[in-house]
Amino acid sequence: MSSIQSIRGMHDILPEQSPLWRWLESRVAEIFAAYDFHEIRTPIVEKTELFTRAIGQTTDVVEKEMYAFDDRNGESLSLRPEGTAGVVRSVIQHGLTQPPGLKVWYQGPMFRHERPQKGRQRQFHQFGAEVFGLEQPAVDVELILLGERLWSSLGLAGRVRLEINSLGDREDRERYRRQLIEYLEPRRDQLDADSQRRIETNPLRIFDSKNPDTQAVMDQAPRLADAMGEEARAHFQEVCRLLDELGVEYRINTGLVRGLDYYCRTVFEWITDDLGAQGTVCAGGRYDDLVAIQGGKPTPGIGFAMGVERLLALAETAGVEASQEPHAFLVSQVSPEATLDVAERLRSELPGLRLAVALSGGKFKAQFKRADRSGARYGLILGESELAAGNIQIKDLRASQADQETVALDQLASRLAERIGRTDND
Ligand code: ATP
Ligand code: MG
To answer: Ligand 1 in contact with 151 (CB < 6 A)?
Structure first.
């Protein structure tokens, strides 16, 4: 019988990869804390209706990509395809829209039934941030500054560029939608099949089409920027002015529409050219109507989400490495109880120590091989004679010349701490 494999597009994160994930997660958490964001964790499964209402019935995500299923009681549930809808639900449900100014971040797996390819999985991971109750352009800009700080903290400064646009307010988009349909109707034949269907249902989305003929038609289409009302226009101008003042580089891309219906006003994407077609590592924007659409008191909101797999792929092309080798490896020829006792005492005395122990026994030589392979800097050698004398040996496994010393067991922790401290500062 063949063994069961993981689901297509859903990947294991293996032990050799997890140090890089940990590294990214801790950097991101630090940056969020620096901007006074607090973590929120919402369920991975929500009522399907939550997503159809928030994201929009005629978007790719809802039309084609949702993992929806009937619960045993017949209710339609979905694995979350993105994080904002659940966070908005939670914020409304728990009355967190007051006082204004809540800043939350989240992380976790998202699920979309897309065609798996490089940079596109069916289970992928996002970090996201959301701000509620603040409509000032400075809030949009602070989120962008947070992004910029994060890229430099991850060693990615200069590898991602910022594109921004404004989608105007809802009435602006309604007006513009009619103009766009008027423009597209006579050009229907030049569009791909999906886009033809979208003319009536969701013409703005056609800007997102990757089809070159469709793109050529859209390049000549009227621009939302020209249909935008005074308030949305002023908001966008202020965002751009602040970015200029603060020296943030960006490009205005009037074709940037984003794939979800809830966005309005400022939208932005951080894009890299180092990963091929799937180059957007972070995307977001305002959703000033979403809380009301979900049944809450009208509350402006803005947020972004970044794709962890794409960020890690980018970090790897940038040469970032992370590993989690043990500091020390205990090789032992004494009884398991004596070995475990020495190891436990050492772990108690040196919190933070990463200690591996050769519990499978075997000859010293075989254990040393394992110690070398583990990447540990120090071998701790415990033989019968050492134990009888209350001693242990510390050996630098990476020293070119033999570097081995005998220390009393009750001095082991302080001596090892000294030596580890020294290598940390190397
Ligand atoms: P794309 O245009 O690449 O399909 P999107 O507009 O659907 O992206 P969002 O919903 O805005 O993406 O999600 C934010 C980020 O999450 C993306 O910029 C990307 O980094 C990541 N992401 C989205 N879908 C996937 C996926 N299927 N696999 C891996 N990462 C993804
Ligand atoms: Mg997508």
So the answer is: no
